[in-house]
UniProtKB/TrEMBL annotation:
Similarity-based family: Belongs to the 4-toluene sulfonate uptake permease (TSUP) (TC 2.A.102) family.
UniProt entry keywords in alphabetical sequence: Cell membrane, Membrane, Transmembrane, Transmembrane helix
Membrane topology type: Multi-pass membrane protein
Name by which UniProt lists this protein: Probable membrane transporter protein
Organism: Parasulfitobacter algicola
Length: 305
């Protein structure tokens, strides 16, 4: 069943969009990521313009993340205090990111920037997570138990400390705010929840327990991506509601399924699966950037707009 998307100005299969939303919702529930790092490139692949894909996907992430958070709140695996500190940084970063996005759009460079950001960030983070997860699996097999987290690093010597009881931490609020700002900028420019950066940062930089990280990440993602969507809708007019609704329905259903799957897998297994997925998407995007496009005239067309 074909449906015409008025803002994107393309026709796509409605069931394909529902399926993509469901797939990304499952990932959201399993890994604590908004799923935008996967969905936004998938929207590029089916012909949605990057500016519309970024703004609309931020909207879909709100729904799938909200659905995932409800499941985690029932299990008491959300650190609301840490989530709020991350959120403060995230809102600042989102505002900065939308300003940068609008400037690059006016220069006609936004499509290239979005795709290059994906290749660079996904490549670096996917590789680091893959190597670390492999090492963690090896260590747990050798010792028969999961490796202990390092309790003290440079983060613990910073000022403005606060207690985070659910995470069992007493650390400075500076690193969480900085992580939030970075994630907010990425949410605005790349149409992602930023979970693929936030989850590793919360585990390795802040030292949070993996079981709390997923729910807390989703809590922060809801508000940052909601704010980002609002800014894109009012300044760029690039949010396609028909596209958003179809992705949203699939995402909400998928997030509930993903949360159930996630509780049955070990933390190391979850991380290595996420790393493989990140690297696969990065490889496809890099390939598309390097290979000569089938329709050469489309390059000239974007140059004139």
């Amino acid at each position: 069943m074909q449906i015409y998307l008025p803002i994107a100005e393309v026709s796509v299969n409605a069931f394909l969009l529902l399926g993509l939303g469901g797939l990304v919702g499952i990932l959201s529930g399993m890994f604590g990521v908004g799923g935008g790092f996967l969905m936004t490139p998938l929207l590029f692949f089916i012909g949605i313009p990057p500016a519309v894909a970024v703004a609309t996907e931020a909207n879909q992430i709100v729904a799938s993340s909200f659905s995932g958070v409800l499941a985690h709140l029932k299990r008491k695996t959300v650190d609301l205090r840490m989530g709020t500190v991350l959120l403060v940084g995230g809102l600042i970063g989102a505002a900065l990111g939308v300003v940068l996005f609008n400037y690059l759009k006016s220069q006609g460079q936004v499509d290239l920037l979005v795709k290059l950001c994906y290749v660079v960030f996904l490549g670096i983070i996917g590789a680091l997570m893959f190597v670390e997860s492999l090492n963690a699996i090896r260590r747990s097999k050798r010792t028969g138990s999961a490796p202990k987290r390092r309790k003290h690093n440079w983060v613990h010597s910073l000022p403005f400390k606060m207690k985070f009881r659910v995470s069992g931490l007493y650390i400075s609020i500076i690193p969480p705010v900085l992580v939030g700002i970075c994630v907010g900028v990425l949410a605005a420019i790349m149409g992602v929840g930023g979970g693929f950066i936030m989850v590793p940062a919360m585990i390795y930089l802040l030292g949070m327990p993996t079981k709390v990280v997923v729910g807390t990440s989703l809590f922060q993602i809801i508000f940052v991506t909601g704010f980002t969507t609002l800014l894109h809708a009012t300044t760029n007019y690039t949010v396609d509601m028909a596209l958003a609704v179809l992705l949203l329905v699939g995402g909400v259903v998928g997030a509930q399924i993903g949360t159930r799957i996630g509780t049955r897998l070990k933390a190391e297994q979850l991380r290595i699966l996420l790393a493989i997925m990140v690297l696969a998407v990065c490889g496809k995007l890099a390939f598309d950037l390097l290979v000569q496009p089938a329709e050469l005239y489309s390059i000239g067309e974007t140059g004139h707009s």
